Amino acid sequence: MNIEPYRQILTRYWGFTSFKPLQEEIIRSVAEGKDTLGLMPTGGGKSITFQVPALAHDGICLVITPLIALMKDQVSRLNSLEIKSIAIHSGMSGEEIDIALENAIYGDYKFLYVSPERISTRIFQAKVSKLDLSLVAIDEAHCISQWGYDFRPSYLKIATLRDHISDKVPFLALTASATPQVIDDIMSKLAFRGKNVLRTSFDRKNISYLVRKVEDKGTYLVKTLQKAKGSGIVYVRSRKRCKEVAELLVANGISADFYHAGLPDELRDKKQASWAEGETRVIVATNAFGMGIDKAEVRFVVHWDIPDSIENYFQESGRAGRDNKPAFAVLLYSQADKNRLFESMRKKFPPVDKIKDIYEALCNFLQVPLGSGKDNVFDFNMSDFVSRYRLPVIETYNSLQFLQREGYLEFTEEINNPSRIHFTVGRDDLYKFQVANEAFDGFIKLLLRSYTGMFSGFVPVNEDALSRKSAATHDTVYQYLVKLSTLNIIRYIPGKKTALVIFTEERLDRRALLISPDNYLHVKEKYEIRLNRMIEFAESDNRCRSMILLDYFGEESDRCGICDVCRKRNELDLSKYEFDLILEEIKTVLGEKSPDAEELVKLIDFPEDKVIKVIRWLLDHKKILSDNEHKLSWCQKTE
Q1: Which terminus in the chain has less CB density within 10 A, N or C?
Q2: What is the pTM of this model?
């Protein structure tokens, strides 16, 4: 196929003259109609792989993503490029969803973004066959696998789309990280018509992975950042710690700010922009900081707290050095961190009876009768809920997460939905209304000057902006909108910031709420395995850190030479070639006999001083063991 038309689209809309590694291969595969799984590390440009081919072909691209904030961000960016795009998610009313689907079917839209829990709803199932689809793109595809670190049952319904659409429409599944087991699971659960995985290496040769075992993290961080150059990110696990660490850095003369999901959207955008533009040097953030970051020149990512999985650590640390220049990923670790991780695991898996208690309390709180509620969406205030029923917050949150894993409900973190309006009358009838109601004429003209698209669908509006433009109070603007809605001239949906609960099944009696003990233990076991692999990474001091990460994702590699473990080995003043040759000879000898150190040196055909250095290193890193008689043996655990 000729790639040139695709490259022209890339240049026209995004300004790039060539594709990044793997982008072109994925685009070719999709253009040939093949179901494709693309594994691209953080910052690899995943969205280009479906946006470019969608623009090159007739029809609309269906994009499935669980990240509502990302969905809104991408739709906004595409529309700013005059590429008509629309989104459907659980924060929208039924009327909004119906209008959005009608527009997607009959309008000239190129992208329809949908959250996964909407896929199985009656309204979507009834209309999806009318969509002229060119491609189905599934972002965060690892969510479909029960072996993955972020399983969502709603993803399992995606394959049912194949019953409603042409079999010529390819599926493109995308993820930044997946183990070999998860890769196979994704293709199986999405009913791929043939195995087809395209991937780049997870090896980030420019990132130096360092683990610093420190108790006083604050002092270490301040001293390190005072010496380090460039900008970076410090990841922490709690919102409170986020602010505390930022204040500590500022108090020591380091330009820093904090960022977490509890801040207002406008403030978060302002903080992120300030950091991205270099006005703020260091951003201290929870894992809410990540979406849409395209800053290439990040010189360091520091983890104050250890993440609970290699996947999370790899994605977050991978935000360093996207310009391919040297960068550092530093994990601050102490024994207390390990204890906290295992304590958090205990809280992450409440007893089954407690999960059922919280399910019943939730149904009562939301006033959902037995046998009803399926596909219903409810605003949900967590603090009001735990306060009314006197529930522990962390246990409640994790119980809701487990109910989501079991497929009974979907629980979305807090999202900010702006106010929306839609004109319910045509332009002619609106003009007649303006003539007959002069008091509303000026305000309606203000709306028409400020926003477009209000006759065909719901459009986000900002009451404060309208207030400034009209020199009226916020309350006056609000009253105008309410009155026009009462008169059926517009449909006005006031904005709100709230979490959501979506019932994917009708409310069940407690006895019918099945949480299999085997499944419960299975999920817990998988979580514990991921936790232990992360701890092994942190505590290892005898194996290249890059090799540990790549091995987790099923890749073989040589040692990186730049992580803290490799640097210690480099201090031996031996080349990698010399070290490996001596190591292999030592390993061969110890496979046959158990000499003491002096005998071993004589058995190795290399200069004595170099052999002694390698033996000392192997002893220090517990690669070889010495018994009471000083006899040496190869440690089997290092295999």
Answers
A1: C
A2: 0.78
